[in-house]
């Protein structure tokens, strides 16, 4: 089963450009992961400092491989002081069951 999540964080005022650069570089690396299916980065239209990252991985193993990627730790270490939250807020998503 696919592993789907939404990661959210808000760039501190004055850190917008650095956060944008960091997440763009990180997104390029994540999208190259064998098990990554989607890594879409959004900002809220009404709050451009607020980021939503929609992520989909092939399965739990692919997600675990993503967590162990060597660039994840340095990315999070660089991002943490630049955002308002203590860390990215992760929300795991399940598809809505449909009947046919």
TrEMBL record:
Coiled coil: none annotated. Signal peptide: none annotated. This is Quinol monooxygenase. Keywords: Monooxygenase, Oxidoreductase. Gene3D superfamilies: 3.30.70.100. It comes from the Bacteria. InterPro entries: ABM_dom, AI-2_Isomerase_LsrG, Dimeric_a/b-barrel.
